[in-house]
Amino acid sequence: MRAAAALLLVASAPPAYAEDGLAERLIGGWTDNGDCNDTIEMRDDNSFVMSDGGQGSWVLDGNALTLSGEAGRVKIQIEMQSEGAMSITNADGSPGRSTRCW
Fold first, then answer.
1. Beta strands in the chain (DSSP E)
2. If you placed Cys at 98, which of 8, 11, 25, 48 could pair as Cys (CB 3.0 to 4.6 Å)?
3. Domains parsed from the chain with CATH numbers
4. In 10 A of CB 74, how many CB atoms?
5. What is the separation, in whole angstroms, between the first and last Cα of the chain?
6. Arithmetic mean of pLDDT, 35-40
7. Using an 8 Å Cβ cutoff, are 4 and 74 in contact?
8. Which residues are within 8 A (CB) of 25 and not within 5 positions of it... i.e. 6 or more apart?
9. Is the overall model pTM greater than 0.85, yes or no?
10. Nearest-angstrom CA–CA distance, 5 and 1
11. Backbone angles phi, psi at 24, to 5 degrees
12. Which residues contact 41 (CB under 8 A, 6 or more apart)?
């Protein structure tokens, strides 16, 4: 869940995109450290697969993204900053950022 939890700068900047269509923009591979060999792949069937083999499901409610898998459940707030970048606020309030790999 490392990439999922860190999946993405804090909500201090206004979102570049409205909530409408957010789920579709999540589909693809994302990295939180710039290494596209260390990703979480968000799939259109609401599943995800991580580069380390972890997998699970995701649910989006507004800007709240919940990822559930073998390692547990994490809920984060996300905001698309562009088609290739999103910011998050982790459950503990810490900021994160993720960039699209594909």
1. 28-31, 40-42, 47-50, 55-61, 64-69, 72-82, 85-89, 95-100
2. 8
3. 2-100 (2.40.128)
4. 19
5. 19
6. 97
7. yes
8. 17, 80, 83
9. no
10. 6
11. -65, -35
12. 28, 29, 30, 48, 49, 50
**Helix (H) and strand (E) counts for the chain?**
2, 8
Q: And the tokens for 41?
A: 């792949």
Instruction: Measure the CA–CA gap between 44 and 16, rounded to whole angstroms.
Output: 22
Cβ atoms < 10 Å from Cβ of 12: 9
Output the six-digit token pair for 55: 């997998």
Q: Both tokens of residue 80? A: 């698309």
43-68: pLDDT as tens digits: 999 999 999 999 999 999 999 999 99
Do β-strands 95-100 and 28-31 pair in parallel, antiparallel, or remain unpaired? antiparallel
- Site of tokens 């698309």: 80
Q: How far apart are CA 84 and CA 74, in angstroms?
A: 22
The owner of tokens 């991580």 is 50
